Records
---
Amino acid sequence: MSETFTIAHARSWIDGFASRCDEQKAYLTELDSAIGDADHGANMARGMGAVRGALSADEPQALDALFKAVGMTLVSSVGGASGPLYGTFFLRVGMTSGAVDSLDGAGLSASLHAGVKGIVDRGKAEAEDKTMFDAMAPALDALDASLAEGGDLAAAASAAAEAAAAGRDATEPLQARKGRASYLGERSIGHIDPGAASTALLFDALAEALS
Amino acid sequence: MKKLINSPETVLADALTGIEAADPSVRVDHVNRVIYRAAPKVDGKVALVSGGGSGHEPLHGGFVGYGMLDAACAGEVFTSPTPDQMQAATKEVDRGAGVLHIVKNYTGDVMNFEMAAELAAAESGVEVATVVTADDVAVQDSLYTAGRRGVGVTVLLEKIVGAAAEEGRDLAAVKAIADKVAANGRSMGMALTSCTVPAAGKPTFDLPEDQMEIGIGIHGEPGRHREPLASAKDIAAQLVEPILADADFTGDPAIVMLNGMGGSPLIELYLMYGEVAALLEKAGVSVARTLVGNYITSLDMAGCSVTVLKADDEILSLWDAPVETAGLRWGR
């Protein structure tokens, strides 16, 4: 049971996300082949591998420094749309976390919301555009609802992971309105959005880190 | 997958090594993955930086040199380069007159170049202007998509705007001519086969032997629709008609490019150009300049695209100006 989100949790979260991106590389790329350009798995695995390297070379002691390192590394190593989007997410999470080594539930929620707002600022996505936002938004709603009911961080993160996975699955019947998948029009229907799938991995990793 | 590679992970690094070995007129920054002119432009002239995912060669690295680009940032195959690469290139090529970023309208490219322009302005004070190409008429409804893709007109734009920068025009004037070219060009492409991204190891999409994909982009993404394979004459009509329906090309001289996607032989590209030229003539379009060949490719995809640019005397004169790059070379 966790009452606070510590820098150790943050490291474990990032490390778990890196492992998942690596393990699910082929799956993410397969999703991206159907409606994108077949590189999401390779890009995320490469980017999160670079993040692991950066964090082992330099061990930030505050959440803002840690997430800034994650964000800048992703921006400079992923490319595509995922680089600026995930990069902006972690940069904003870090800016809102501040120079602290732990956050309470409300603090973690505020940081994650800032990250999602960063993604919206950068990518202009709205609900049901069939993007990573469709997994992120319900994840944060579930996290907030669980915290409001008095759940601890582990329960809240677990609820967020379930909601992100449901959000990922709910992208399947949607027609894409952003990114390369939008060029397919109706043919984007019937496929899970790769960005929503990697976002589900992100929240799954958070849930495990806090469990 | 059968490819001339050492390993999927090193394709880009190995290709950059080859580009540097093959062409003494460029130098390669292997850390930032930027191709520069070996002999930089003189002070006071606007510099041009472009870039994008690799796999479209000769675009963009093959267009670095006198009369075209000053630097090209190479991303992984079909993946936008990153802001730090673009920022390094922007700072390096600035000769005090500012830098024009030439960006193809793809979500990742646009976002990464946006971040790079913000960083360059904040950290090094370089004046950056941006032109985004969005000429692909296969994408019809821009309200509910990421907008039209930037494809073939990018090649023509880099040549024409490169000449304007070489003449010593200021950043505002260089951007104005870039905007004019971007606004007046239209493209449409098709594929006979998919392409295989080295890191994926298998074709990006399945296209049966008797089918073709109309309205493709340049990243192996599927196109607008699929239909039974047809004759060159029919395919030419399917490419030319949407272009002519989208803009009026009569009354002005046109520059036309018949571009190969990488896997179609030149004999087929010339054959296709013959069909395209006949259709354009019938439609009253007066073709002043042509380019036939592989200029903006999609790895090993078989197929082609047509680009038509409405020109004028100024654009034709910039088009005819000397150019000396690996991909285009005349007049010098």
---
Amino acid sequence: MSQSHRIAGGQIDRSTTLRFSFDGASYAGHPGDTLASALLANGVRLMGRSFKYHRPRGPLSAGSEEPNALVHLRSGARQEPNTRATVAELFDGLTATSQNAWPSLRFDAMAINDRLSSFFTAGFYYKTFMWPAAFWEKVYEPIIRRAAGLGALTREDDPDSYDKAFAHCDLLVIGAGPAGLMAALTAGRAGVRVILADEDFRMGGRLNAEVLTIGGQAGGDWAAGVVAELASLPNVRLMARTTVVGAFDAGIYAAVERVSDHLPVPLPGKPRQTLWRIYSKRAIVAAGATERPIAFENNDRPGIMLAGALRAYANRWGVAVGDRVAIFTNNDDGLRSAADLTAKGVQVVAVIDSRTDGPLLPGIRHLRGAQVIDSTGRLGLSGITVRLATGQTETIACTALGVSGGWNPNINIHSHHRARPEWRADIAAFVPGQGGPAGLIAAGAAAGHLSTYGALAGGHVQALAVLESLGITATAGDLPKAEDAPLNLSPLWHVPHGKGRAWIDQQNDVTVKDVKLAQQENFTSVEHLKRYTTLGMATDQGKTGNVIGIAVMAELTGRAIPETGTTIYRPPYTPVAMGALAGRSRGKEFKPFRLTPSHKWASEQGAIFVEVGNWLRTQWVPKPGETTWRESVDREVLATRRSVGICDVTTLGKIDIQGTDAAAFLDKVYCNTFSTLAVGKCRYGLMLREDGMVFDDGTTARLAEHEYVMTTTTANAVTVFRHLEYCRQVLWPDMDVQIISTTEAWAQYSVAGPNARKLLEKVVDQDISDAAFPYMGAGSVTLGGLRGRLFRISFSGELAYEVAVPARYGDALMRRLMAAGAEFDAVVYGTEALGVMRIEKGHVAGGELNGQSSALNMGLGKMVSKKKDSIGMVLSQREGMTRADGYRLVGVKPADPKGVLQAGSHFLEVGAPVELASDGGWLTSKVYSPHLGCDIALGYLKAGDQKIGRRMRAVNFLTGTDTLVDIVSPHFFDPDGERFRG
Amino acid sequence: MIIPHPILGPRDAQEFVYLGDASLIDRPDGMTAGIEVFHDYLYNRDNPAGLHRELWYHEQGDRSWLVVTRDTVTHEIVSAELARDVARARGRSK
Amino acid sequence: MADAWKSLTALGHDTARTVTVGPYRITERDDVALASVALRRGQDQAFAAAAAKAGVPLPPPLQSASGTPYGAFWVTPDMWFVTAPFASHEDIVAHLKPVFGAAASITEQTDAWVCFDLSGPALTAWMERLCNVDLAVVPDGYATRTMMDHLGVYLLKQGADAVRLFGPRSSAQSLLHALEVAAASLA
């Protein structure tokens, strides 16, 4: 199809032709076109079906306020739903398809909804699909979802990347129309750092869509000149294709830059979009104004659009939407559309002016005191019915109708902090009121100054005010000449006539009738109106409909508009892709990884890694021939208990604590005592929260009189460090304590098993015999001359040490330990084997350190010293936490050795009914013990210390299991600790 | 949100971790205060509509604990002080 | 002393390497020894005197200072990170402890961090994709902790086209990846 509706002029590059397709048909357009302008140029008015009634729809607007022309843009994995054709920049090869229509846009089977519209009024779903309740989720909702709705997701991964970035400025100018350009120019010339952001790909705002002159120049040329000057200023940053979507506290704004949306595929390395976090000292919102329609019957047909949009398509894009055009207006700006179109050679068949006293346009049929009351045309406008001032009606054939009900200043950003707008009767619109985000002021049309001169002056004056507030004196300059005409608006919100439907919110199919129904049912507040009718929801957030909805409600309730309510907005200004909010944090880049010093070595061994927080830890290391993880884990456990095993424990948190009050400090933060610990020794420490629950545990070694090194669990390394800073800064600010994390500074390996000492004797330079380095010994050593640390501590219950060297030597130490251990058949063991051995020993870990358990629950109640004040000591003595029948840590074995235990199972007495009242506690962690040849587990059982030896049931509703178990001591293995003292 | 760090100047609130009411500074002495006193200290809070003093930790910054005075109605941050200085002024020592 | 010990860089290489992305260069530095040096309470005079005598700079908040052999940057009230050449000061704590005696708490930090030197034109454009530091405005010698891709990182501005980062060693590869991706989006 040729570009049948293309006329002369416009800011498009006719020397280049771009091919694109819509619903499979091929079309041509030019650089500078939007998808909507190019389709209109090709005579395509029908672009979508409405949300509820599946009414045929075309674009209402030429901008981001568009409620109707929503399409699937692109295809395959890059398909994006609900894209506004009015802002989608045309590129060669663009493909778009219509949405919410089946089998085709021209014949949509669901249009039957339109015939049944009397059933589908506001509140219909709530009233109709109430009963039976169970049907809602299973029957009604899926059907409604299929019938009503917007675009569809591809369900494929987005192949493109998104990015985040930060920018700083003295002044952020939002919108690059006449006001924004003037504000940026004023501030930029004064030398402050300015960011000028505009959602359009061409800066200039309405000037690009008008034939107005500024200082004798065409408005578009003036804008281009200002943009060029701004681009030359090093202190000004121009951000086109960038929508400021939200105002946040303290001058922070969020903006989405569409880096690659105008390209078929992003350039290599480039993101599709970038989410900017803009830190500003001041901001000026110069986001312009949005025209609003007038509601009349069947006012939603393709070809009926805002008068200013009709003019924009002609002036900016060289498109005549129809060959016979009518204008319906209640203000002088509508007349401008008629004049511009006439000047472009488009036949304007009539101007229907609801005012009786408007100025007359020469050479155009101007019907004063008249109103459009209806329209015709199945898939696009073919004619309108006009009620003349005389009361007679007349039918006028036309293929496009421009409607102007006035202009609403874009108060959106200004209202993001809930600042209430004020009503200005002279333009019958809301303007920014008091309050609003600190540091933000509105200028130009966004502030209600709707003339070109008003915009220029507003931008200039507000920029001067900003400069003054920043302590910079700048003198007012001469402003270029520009039109300064008033709007001369006489409010008309809807045309009362007949029983048909007149649309207020085209995106949600909300009509005047729906507002009436809401009023009848007493949903008269604006907030109720919105929820009852869905007015103002979805992608356009009611940019064109909200004010009309309030006005109609005001009329129905006999109140003034400001009494009825106001409309405010939440972020985002326009829809934001989830990808942009995620940025780079997707898939494997969701979070950074942490690798231990032996990671390279472990990878070479074929280790299986598990995520523990951000760490990748060796979970087990399969050997050839092992087909299940259990085989590997069992081998690692048995080999360690038989001879020696090595485990990377670098991930445990390590905190260096120094100072003359270090000992006193540890006595405060641990419930047990550390001031009595001898230099060169370490001790197990239990850390409570102030509420008496266990926070963390680990061993802490005293390396010198005033120097300790604390270990924490892997999971709590960060929170314990935060807590220690809290204690030393907030609670005991005069203690001489200095702390620093050394978690990553040292590679640390556990060497455990009967041959652990023999192995280490080959690696450590010093005497580490039991006499020289007894159980719980700790201190500095050297390993072949290299500085290191050695701790004789055991989590596995074996004779065990932890040996540490600076992290860069960690790889070499692991290789050296394995080489030295070859004669002992040393194995490396992972977190699974670690878990088996700690449960065999009855040591608590993640499943037991659940934030709801006290020392007493864990069987460690005696550790809480009452001879000194420590965090959690007092509240751990509360009645509820010290009851004799409270939870106690127990060991669990299946009554039948082949029985399978499951973490999360609940303990019940044999024969007790399976109900909450019988619940005796739960199973926290379970493993298979190759040593005992059966499953073993730990659990919390009410009065568990008194139930050792009892047979109970472990019931798990999730898996439907009910297993007989024996309650035993949690110390399954070497209960007297002969092995680790060896 | 921006927190005016007393040492480092304005910093993005994203760098901070929030703890809660600054009354946590006034921890009773565990050797003299009983369960009731500690219970009141740990659990009972005012919930003002207006100025609220609260503890924030500059985790992704200089590790300082701050007492931030914030208006819970407007989100305005009125001031930020080093918690250590506040604690000392309230008589805390070792 | 530890000659027989083979070391790996934080990125897991035998020797430190430079990665180039367009005009941007990321150089891993494994030749910087690092220690935290914290003032012990009430030792202000002895601490300052010892630092002055040994030539350990003690810059104020948000600043770094360089010198031979010691450089330093401020990290938290009464604590600095002190740098020195690794070749001569591998056991940096052993060098500093005699200097400060009981006036300071000193802890080895060398291998807790990966050090990257970044260079290239328009570093501001690169860094603004990663962190909220207003690099265009802060002076040379500026030092701050900031967040890059969820990681806490010390950033030292060493010139208009030179930035040094200290990031958590275990996440060296993730940090490098973030730097590369950001650079690639500009290249």
